[in-house]
Amino acid sequence: MMTKRKNLIAGAALVGAATLALAGCAGSSEPETTSDAGSGSGADRPIEIAVFNGWDEGIAASYLWQAVLEEQGYDVNLTYADVAPVYQGVSQGDFDVVLDTWLPVTHADYMETYGDSLEDLGAWNDEAKLTIAVNEDAPIDSLSDLAANADAFNNEIIGIEPGSGLMGITADDVVPGYGLEGMNLVASSTPAMLTELRAATDADENIVVTLWRPHWAYDAFPIKDLEDPDGLLGGAESIHSVASTTFATDFPDVHQWISNFTMDSATLYSLENAMFNEYEGDDYLPVVQQWISENQDWVDSLTS
Q1: In sequence order, what are the residues at sequence separation of 6 or more whose Cβ sits closer than 8 angstroms to the Cβ of residue 278?
Q2: The Cα angle at residue 233 between residues 229 and 239, in degrees rounded to 5
Q3: Which ranges in the chain belong to alpha helices (H)?
Q4: 56: closest CA among 7, 20, 121, 120?
Q5: Rounded-to-integer distance, Cα 193 and Cα 186, Å
Q6: How many Cα atoms sit within 13 Å of 58 on the Cβ side?
Q7: What are the residues whose beta carbons fall under 8 Å from the beta carbon of 45, sequence distance 6 or more?
Q8: Residue-wise over 184-199: b if at least 16 C-beta within 10 A, else e?
C-alpha cells in the first residue's frame, strides 16, 4: 500500500539531461508535526528533525526517534521539506538533524556545499542502493535489454520527484548509458509512482520504475531489480544522520544516542510495513508506538 500522504502526480514530464544528480527526495512540502511531549530536557526548546518528503526510510526513522525522544521527555518537531532547504536549514541551525543522508554519492554535493556547517553522525544503515525495478515476471532482467523491449513497458520509466538524486542519476547517467533516450522518464512523486506500481502488478502488467533499497515496496509487490551491468546507478550506499554543529551542545544525550543508532534493513522493513502497509490512518505516531511495544528490547537499546 502506498503511504497515506496526499501527494498527486505533478504531471508527466521528461527529465532533461541537465537535471542535477542531487539528492534525496524533493517532493511537495508537508505540514510540520509537533509532539505532545512535556518540557523535555536539554535545550529549552523542541528538537527539530527535518524529513525528506517521499523517502519512507527517513520518514520511518524520524517517527521512530520522535516516539523514543518523547518517552525520554523531549519535545520533537518533524518538518517535511525539499532536500536543498533541509541542508541549508541544518547548516544554519534551523533544524537539528536529518536522518536520511545517502553517502557517498546521492547527497555528496550537499555535503560538499554545507559540510563545514554540518556534523556527520555516522551511518545507521549500510544497505542502501538506487535501483530500477520491474514487475517480477517482466520479460527482461537487465537494463541493457530495456531499450530493445521498451514497447513492453509502454515506452515509459515511471519516476519520482523531479529534483531527487535518483531522478538526476537516472536522467544523466542511466538513460544515455543504456540507450534509453526513446523512453519517457516520467517525473511524478514517490506516492504516485507507488500507486502506478500497485496498479500494474495487480493487473499483471509490465512496469518499470525508479526505486531504491531499503524500501517496503520490495515486501509489498512482486518486483525485481534490473541488473545494472555498467554500474551507472552506483554501488551500495549508507544512510547517515547529519546534524547542525550546535546539536551536541544543545542536546548532548540525544546527539550520543543518534550517533550510536543502527538499524538493519529487516528491522526497518518491519517498521515501514507497520506504518505504510498495515496502517490506514494519517497519524503515524500511534502505529509507531505500537511497533515499539512489540520491539521494546531493541528500542530500549537505542538510549541505553
Answers
A1: 287
A2: 130
A3: 56-71, 83-92, 108-114, 165-169, 175-177, 190-202, 217-220, 247-250, 252-259, 265-276, 284-294, 296-301
A4: 7
A5: 9
A6: 29
A7: 75, 250
A8: bbbbbbbbbbbbbbbe
Q: Would you mind telling me the total number of residues written for the chain in this entry?
A: 304
Q: CA 17 to CA 13: how far, in whole Å?
A: 13
d(CA 51, CA 153): 33
- pTM, two decimals, is 0.76
| Percent helix, strand and coil across the chain, each to the nearest 5 | 40, 20, 40
pLDDT of residue 41: 52
| Closest listed residue to residue 63, CA positions, set 279, 297, 304, 210 | 279
As beta bridge partners, residue 119 has: 243
Q: What is the per-residue pLDDT for 164?
A: 80
204-235 pLDDT, tens digit each = 999 999 999 989 899 889 999 999 999 999 88
- pLDDT tens-digit profile of 1-49? 333 332 322 333 323 322 333 333 333 334 444 444 434 456 799 999 9
Single-letter code of the amino acid located at 14: L
**What is the amino acid identity at position 217?**
A
> Is the distance from CB of 303 to CB of 68 less than 8 angstroms?
yes
